[in-house]
Amino acid sequence: MTGVIKIAYLYEDLMNTYGDSGDVKILSYLLKQRGYETQVDDVSIDTPKFNAQDYDFLFFGGGQDFEQTVVAKDLLRHSQTIADYIEAGKPMLAICGGYQLLGDYYETSEGTTIKGLGILPLHTVFKADARMIGDTEFETEWGTVKAFENHSGRTYFDDNVKLKPLGKMITGYGNNPEDGVEGMRYKGTIGSYAHGPLLKNVNLAAAIADQIISNHQARLATVQA
Ligand code: GLN
C-alpha cells in the first residue's frame, strides 16, 4: 500500500512570495511520477492546531514583513509539534520569511522584534540600506542552484556546528553580505532565501522528493504496526 503523501503548507495564504507555492507543485508532480498521490493541507490562522507527525513534508514559504508579523503571532501554538518533527529528521523546506521564522527572532523594518519558533540557532536582522535583490547562483551538494532573492533580513547562524549552509555563493548574497553562504541545513530541514521557485532546480527537487517518500514509508509502517 502506498497511501497518500501528506504535505502541510504552513500559512499558504500569507506566506507565498515570488512563486514559492511552485515548490509544492513541483514536488507533487515528481511524487506523482514516482506513483504517489499527494494531499496538501493549508495550516493557517483559522485552522485547528495540527500534528506535524501526521505529515510527510512541511513547507513554509516567504512573506513580507507585515504578513510575517501576523503569522508569527499564530505560529507559536505549533512550535512544539514543528520542533519535534524537525528533531526527528523529517523533511521540511522553509523559504525566506519562513526560514527566518524557524530561528530565534527577526528584527523587522519597523524596528520591532518578531519572536520566531526558536527551533534553529539563527537570527535575522533587517537592514534598510541595502536590500538583497537579484538573481542568485550557489553551489550545493546537488549541483549549482540558480534562483532569485529579495530580502532585507540578514540571517546569521548562532551555532556553526549544528547548522550547515545549503550552499556557497557564486552570485548574489544568500544569508547575508558577509558570510558568502546561502541557506541552512539541519537534519532533514532546508532553509533558503531562494525563490524562483527554488525547486525548479531539479536535482535538489528530486532529492527532497526521495526523502519525502522514505519518510512516508516510515510513517505508514508506524501507523500500520
Ligand atoms: N520580509 C523578509 C525580508 O525582507 C522576507 C522577505 C521574503 O520572504 N521574500 O527579509
UniProtKB/TrEMBL annotation:
UniProt keyword NADP, yes or no: no
Enzyme Commission number: 6.3.5.13, 3.5.1.2
Pfam families membership: GATase_3
Entries under SUPFAM superfamilies matching the protein: Class I glutamine amidotransferase-like (SSF52317)
Catalysed reactions, as listed in the record: beta-D-GlcNAc-(1->4)-Mur2Ac(oyl-L-Ala-gamma-D-Glu-L-Lys-D-Ala-D-Ala)-di-trans,octa-cis-undecaprenyl diphosphate + L-glutamine + ATP + H2O = beta-D-GlcNAc-(1->4)-Mur2Ac(oyl-L-Ala-D-isoglutaminyl-L-Lys-D-Ala-D-Ala)-di-trans,octa-cis-undecaprenyl diphosphate + L-glutamate + ADP + phosphate + H(+); L-glutamine + H2O = L-glutamate + NH4(+)
Source organism of the structure: Loigolactobacillus binensis
Biological role: The lipid II isoglutaminyl synthase complex catalyzes the formation of alpha-D-isoglutamine in the cell wall lipid II stem peptide. The GatD subunit catalyzes the hydrolysis of glutamine to glutamate and ammonia. The resulting ammonia molecule is channeled to the active site of MurT.
Family named by the database record: Belongs to the CobB/CobQ family. GatD subfamily.
InterPro entries assigned to the protein according to its UniProt record, in alphabetical order: Class_I_gatase-like (IPR029062), CobQ_GATase1 (IPR033949), GATase_3 (IPR011698), Lipid_II_synth_GatD (IPR043702)
Amino acids binding substrate: R131
Quaternary context: Forms a heterodimer with MurT.
UniProt KW Ligase keyword: yes
Matches recorded under Gene3D superfamilies: 3.40.50.880
Protein name, entry field: Lipid II isoglutaminyl synthase (glutamine-hydrolyzing) subunit GatD
Pathway per the UniProt entry: Cell wall biogenesis; peptidoglycan biosynthesis
Coiled-coil spans in chain: none
Record keywords, A-Z: Cell shape, Cell wall biogenesis/degradation, Glutamine amidotransferase, Hydrolase, Ligase, Peptidoglycan synthesis
CobB/CobQ-like glutamine amidotransferase domain location: 6-200
Active site positions: C96 (nucleophile), H195
